[in-house]
Design brief:
Number of domains of chain A: 3
CATH topology of the largest domain in chain B: Rossmann fold
CATH class of the largest domain in chain A: Alpha Beta
Shape of chain B: globular
Number of strands of chain A: 21
CATH class of the largest domain in chain B: Alpha Beta
Strand content of chain B: 15-25%
Helix content of chain B: 25-40%
CATH architecture of the largest domain in chain B: 3-Layer(aba) Sandwich
Largest sheet of chain B: 9 strands, mixed
Radius of gyration of chain B: 27 Å
Number of domains of chain B: 4
Oligomer: heterodimer
Strand content of chain A: 15-25%
């Protein structure tokens, strides 16, 4: 790797678990270096004192380690050869295939000028009503699943990815178990879509700090396909909580003052830099798009923790999974889930009654939840309560359950049937014009 | 000018060794190859000067040269600001080349070639001072005053002023002579450092005039005044942005400035896309014509996020000095506070609560204080109404930004997760929220003249019904439907009528989205009349059923054109329904 003109340093002055420091000159901020062959990046310069963050950890690094500065920031070679390949966090192939040839781009590049963005307006259909009906996804959106570690989020995400009809699916896996990695690999190859997939994988077996490179690698590849090839790209990032944990490790080693929940004070900006890469490009830039679906695992469902909390303020909504005890299946929780961009397509790209039907059904589902509480507290139920409960059961099993795969118009039709079966028109609180048109008599 | 060399780099905090004097908050440029990166001095320690760079510092090296400019961060003020989209440093985003932002690319924020039709207002021999109106040009139908620059101190005499005609912004408009007889040239543009308030006005009284927003839960329940301050805290997903957009579209202001501070780019894009299509309900002209957007989205550099709120406020104060009503919205002030935290952290200052800087509350206070209703030196009035959102961590209102804001903002619109979950939008909690202006005698006098003497009483009554309804609901939850008397149910449902008909409003419905004051008055009268009557009921099931029908009619009225045939039709149905059970007084 070292070239003739490169200066080699061999005097390390300080080593912590994640960083090492040395005296060096002519070094640029963010520049890459190798320390005894391990990849590292410049994170602090003070005079001739340079601090490096060593991605693989500093175990076994001696004070006379060989340090070579590479004169560039972390980068990825991009070309069509990326398709179908599996890489590690540095962008090196891990599938036994050849090195990629192509243009070398710096990862973590600049953001899109907001006036050059286009308002997202293309619906991404998944066949899952908890998404399509209640929380419609739009290309160029960024949305995470907020899930407890025991929930089947990776399976649901793989499902969404396969049904979403994207030109490319880019998987950025951070701290993924080897089992889940093999699961994704399997699902994608069984579906015969491997040529549409690019994966950057950091498993639990790899060093934690390496994870910090994964989202930027995945998004650099995504930008190549969206900008140069004008493709519709879907980026899956799992699990962003482990990414944030890695940020905390590094900031801790650098003696930064932690803010809420031991997270670095810059957590919001760090996460925003990643999620804001989601974009719909305008016609003049080729109409490509980058949509990000991520996973943020929660601890005991706590969304007030700094990681989900900051994420929620950045992403355009969030999806929650929940096991519905009435039907014994997993559903996308209609109460807490939200897609902020749904109004851009609901009722515009879908049938006109979509927004009102969606709200009415969720309202009635909420009334059912109240009735259930009443029942649990030992109170008598009214006739309306009973009907709400019956509606909720039908609604869960016929529309919400994650294994139901129907299009939005069918979902709306079924919803109207359920309204008519359980309620009077004035109980559903929908605009009269729509009731006149769609009420099932 | 002072120059320097880079000595140290940690993220966007750069240490510079200087060869001459520098001042706090002075702007400098750091050269990296061909690019020059803008930075601001935030701390001086001996020959070491700490600057925060407004851009990514990737590739910056020790020894890179630095040039200081001798001035603080300034904005350029003049005709042509309206309708533009700027970043936090006032670069015109539309003039930037390329799809991706390039670091170090800066541009002039106005159009130097455009001709403006200038009509003089001052004449030779007039005595003028800073902010005095020399003349005006028409900027998107707003009388844009060309003023004596705010930096001019003391009194001046107009030596010459150009005749009515078309001029470019850099043309000389007037020549003024100061007390020592020195001449000063005035053009249509001037510069002002953003962190200093523009105070060229005579007096700042307490706000008293209602600022109509068309949002019932604000105008009716907790009104904001022209020149007033308010804030909207809320956990994510409770509709902060939708509410802010509604206000920026509908507020009865001459100028609307939106500071998108560290928020989602797609939300700004929504404004870019929708505003050119939308019509200002008060003037019938395009919304973009009265709007300026300062977009510093969350992925743009952190330091310019901090600058963006000041840039917006300075532009707001500039238009206020012309005697205009300016509405300034900042979404979100928490992101600005976080930017302060990031820098304070890098400078290794001792942290306050949640690692925010110790003086956070003072910084917030000083910023909100720049809003206000003012009497200008010429007796005319102008106002800057400021509404900020706060994004409290974990939805917990006991955090430094919310607490610091609560001390200074006079209106509080508490968005509530529970209401949002139940799709009761806008999810403003009617009981926790407040407007201090309702207690101002000057506002009470104004509103009773504008609407009627009984208005304040009705509003207070309405709140009492809501409070009572909430208490009864809690009792029902504990005792069960059968455990409370039937008239408790009636009272509870009266509060539901208020909630569904007055407080809830469909921001996505064309008609319901904007509710003019006249219509708000009609609906409040209608609803309060319903509430103030007693009804005949035998059991609580009848109550529920009856009030649901009643609410349905009222809601349909909200969805219909005011006083249209459909509207009157529902009114008749409602009257018939009321006659069924209402007990005459």
């Amino acid at each position: 790797m070292s070239k003739a003109f490169q200066k080699i340093y061999t005097q390390i002055t300080a080593i912590t678990k994640a960083t090492c420091s040395l005296k060096a000159t002519g070094v640029g901020n963010d520049e890459l270096a190798t320390v005894n062959g391990k990849l590292a990046q410049v994170v602090k310069i003070m005079g001739d004192d340079v601090t490096l963050q060593v991605f693989q950890g500093t175990e076994g690094i001696p004070t006379n380690a060989e340090v070579v500065f590479l004169g560039k920031a972390p980068s990825l070679k991009v070309s069509d050869q990326l398709a179908g390949r599996f890489f590690n966090a540095y962008g090196d192939p891990i599938d036994g295939g050849p090195e990629i040839e192509g243009k070398e781009v710096e990862i973590g590049g600049p953001s899109v000028n907001p006036v050059r963005r286009k308002q997202p307006s293309e619906l991404i259909a998944t066949g899952i009503a908890g998404i399509d009906l209640n929380n419609t996804l739009v290309s160029g959106q960024k949305i995470p699943f907020f899930a407890d570690p025991d929930q089947p989020y990776n399976q649901v995400m793989a499902n969404v990815a396969l049904r979403a009809e994207a030109d490319k699916i880019i998987l950025g896996a951070m701290g993924m178990t080897n089992d889940d990695y093999l699961y994704f690999k399997n699902v994608f190859s069984n579906a015969g879509v491997l040529d549409r997939i690019v994966s950057f994988v950091n498993t639990t077996e790899d060093p934690a700090v390496e994870r910090l490179l994964v989202p930027d690698m995945a998004l650099a590849a995504a930008e190549y396909f969206a900008v140069e090839k004008h493709e519709k790209v879907l980026v899956l990032l799992t699990d962003m909580t482990l990414y944030a944990d890695a940020l905390a490790i590094v900031s801790n080693r650098m003696d930064q003052i932690p803010s809420k929940d031991s997270m670095p004070g810059s957590l919001y900006s760090d996460l925003a830099k990643i999620y804001e890469k989601a974009v719909q490009f305008p016609e003049e830039a080729g109409s490509g798009s980058i949509t990000i679906i991520a996973v943020t695992t929660l601890s005991g469902g706590d969304i007030t923790h700094a990681i989900p909390d900051n994420t929620g303020y950045i992403t355009e909504g969030q999806l929650y999974l929940r096991r519905d005890s009435d039907i014994g299946k997993v559903i996308v929780d209609p109460f807490r889930s939200l897609s902020r961009l749904k109004q851009l397509v609901a009722g515009k790209k879908t049938r006109e009654d979509h927004p009102q039907v969606m709200n009415a059904a969720v309202r009635l589902y909420a009334d059912a939840a109240n009735a259930k509480t009443k029942l649990e507290n030992g109170f008598d139920l009214t006739d309306y309560d009973e009907r709400c409960l019956a509606f909720a059961k039908d609604y869960s099993s016929k529309i919400l359950a994650i294994d139901v795969n129907i299009n939005t118009t069918e979902m709306l039709d079924i919803a109207w049937q359920l309204f008519a079966k359980h309620f009077k028109p004035e109980e559903v609180n929908i605009k009269q014009a729509l009731v006149d048109k769609y009420w099932v008599k | 000018m002072t120059t320097g060399k880079v000595k140290g780099i940690i993220a966007n905090l750069v240490t510079v060794v200087v060869d001459g004097p520098v001042s706090q908050n002075e702007i400098c440029y750091i050269s990296v190859g061909e690019t020059r990166l803008m930075a601001e001095v935030i701390k001086v320690a001996g020959e070491n000067v700490y600057v925060q760079v407004f851009e990514s510092t990737r590739g910056l090296k020790v020894g890179n040269s630095v040039e200081f400019t001798g001035h603080m961060l300034e904005v350029t003020l003049g005709p042509g600001l309206l309708g533009r989209n700027y970043d936090g440093l006032q670069n015109d985003l539309d003039k930037l080349t390329g799809v991706f932002l390039k670091r170090g690319e800066y541009n002039f924020p106005l159009d130097k070639e455009k001709l403006w039709h200038f009509v003089p207002m001052a004449k030779v021999g007039d005595h003028v001072e800073a902010a005095a109106w020399l003349g005006e040009v028409d900027e998107n139908h707003q009388p844009h005053k060309i003023m004596v620059p705010f930096v001019f101190e003391g009194s001046y005499t107009v030596k010459s002023i150009v005749a009515e005609g078309d001029y470019k912004i850099e043309d000389t408009i007037a020549v003024l002579t100061d007390a020592e007889g020195k001449e000063h040239v005035v053009t249509m543009i001037q510069k002002w450092p953003v962190k200093k308030a523009i105070t060229a006005y005579r007096e700042k009284p307490r706000p008293f005039k209602l600022l109509e927003t068309g949002v019932r839960t604000i105008d009716t329940a907790n009104p904001i005044c022209e020149g007033g301050t308010g804030f909207i805290p809320g956990p994510f997903g409770t509709g902060k942005t939708v509410l802010q957009h509604a206000i920026s579209k509908q507020a009865e202001a001459d100028i609307v400035i939106i500071a998108a501070c560290g928020e989602r780019a797609n939300e700004v894009v929504e404004t870019f896309t929708e505003f050119p299509e939308l019509i200002d309900p008060h003037t019938g002209r395009k919304l973009t014509e009265r709007t300026i957007i300062i977009a510093n989205t969350s992925n743009m550099p952190v330091a310019s996020r901090e600058a963006s709120v000041y840039t917006s406020m300075t532009i707001a104060e500039y238009y206020r000095s012309m005697g205009l009503r300016v509405m300034l919205m900042a979404d979100s002030t928490s992101r600005w506070a976080q930017a302060l935290r990031e820098m304070s952290n890098r400078m290794e200052e001792l942290p306050g609560q949640d690692a925010f800087p110790m003086d956070l509350s003072a910084i917030i206070g000083a910023f909100y204080a720049r809003a206000g209703y003012v009497f200008l030196n010429n007796g005319k009035t102008g106002s800057v109404t400021f509404l900020g959102t706060v994004s409290p961590a974990g939805g917990n209102l006991k955090e430094p930004v919310t607490e610091g804001t609560k001390k200074v903002a006079r209106c509080f619109y508490a968005l509530e997760q529970n209401r949002a979950d139940r799709k009761r939008y806008p999810a403003v909690n009617p009981i926790d929220s407040y407007s201090k202006y309702l207690e101002y005698p000057e506002f009470q006098k104004y509103i009773s003249e504008l609407i009627d003497d009984e208005w304040i009483n009705k509003v207070n009554d309405m709140k009492t019904y809501l409070q009572r309804g909430k208490e009864i609901q809690e009792q029902i939850n504990i005792l069960g439907d059968d455990g409370v008397p039937v008239d408790y149910h009636e009272e509870f449902w009266k509060s539901e009528v208020i909630d569904f008909v007055i407080l809830q409003q469909d921001a996505f419905d064309k008609i319901d989205a904007v509710c003019p004051l006249e219509r708000q008055r009609y609906m409040l009268d209608l609803v309060m009349d319903i509430c103030r009557h007693d009804y005949k009921f035998d059991n609580f099931l009848d109550v529920t059923d009856y009030f649901k029908r009643l609410i349905n009619y009222c809601k349909q009225m909200n969805y219909s054109e005011f006083h249209s045939e459909t509207f009157e039709d529902y009114q008749k149905k409602l009257n018939a329904l009321l006659a069924e059970r209402q007990i005459a007084k």
